[in-house]
Amino acid sequence: MRSCLTILLVMLLGFTNYSKGQEKKAYRLFDAKGKEIEYKEMMKVLKAQDVVFIGEVHNCAIAHWLEYEMVKDLYTAHKDKLTIGLEMLEADNQLMVDEYVGRLISSDRFEEEARLWPNYLTDYAPVVGLGREHGLRVIATNVPRRYANMVKNGGFEALEKLSAEAKKYIAPLPIDYEPDEEAAGMFGLMMMTSGKHTDPENVAKAQALKDATMGWFIAQNLKSKFVHLNGNYHSDFKKGIITYLNKYRPGLKIATVCSVRQDDIKKLGEENEGRADFYICVPTDMTMTY
């Protein structure tokens, strides 16, 4: 019995290593200057924003748990003024999202038909469920993947062939795109590594289409307060989605959170400086969801 109680205390106290007297934390929070802060300090700032972007490593269990906690606490602060948006839901499925959140259809029908990510049930269903529980708007912000694929294969010109109905699910054309040599180089390296022969510039354009579309649907659905979940890439350095959102709705108060994994989380690594207003820093050996 005593050993069981000891194990429970170890878990509750944050993975304390009694044998060495060294505390083992599952995560640490840092501000933009690399100063370690408490959760309540971060939330005080986030609650004052018009839009909060929570960037993530898609398979980080700790980040997903904290995302849920942040969205829950933003709801506590803003109630029905809060709207939730997710990169993981595609714009042409908004009707199904509305039907599910509005309790018109069951979870099994929603999960079967909405082209959800493989880790939806473990990592995003709690956030969508929060919207359903409290009657909040949940917005599918991302471009339908088939249209991003069109751009990846044929550039922005391919989108001109779409019908007026199809164009309702993407940002207004033409997409205001500025070539990014660094991004194109990164995607070029990815293509080489994967053995694919896709034009890296078109891959960068496909990412821009995603960013523009997410920015567009945030702008269109922002009534008072908005929280958005997306991969780090789409909000790092306040670029990506935020570049387009600032064009569609200038003057907003925006804050960003970035999830990072480091071997040593006692301080924020130099390689991560400048990426966000706040950081969720998780050990690299922490369990991942896939």
TrEMBL record:
InterPro entries for this protein: Cofac_haem-bd_dom
Gene3D superfamilies linked to this entry: 3.40.50.11550
Domain Haem-binding uptake Tiki superfamily ChaN, first and last residues per copy: 42-245
Protein name (record): Haem-binding uptake Tiki superfamily ChaN domain-containing protein
Species for this entry: Butyricimonas virosa
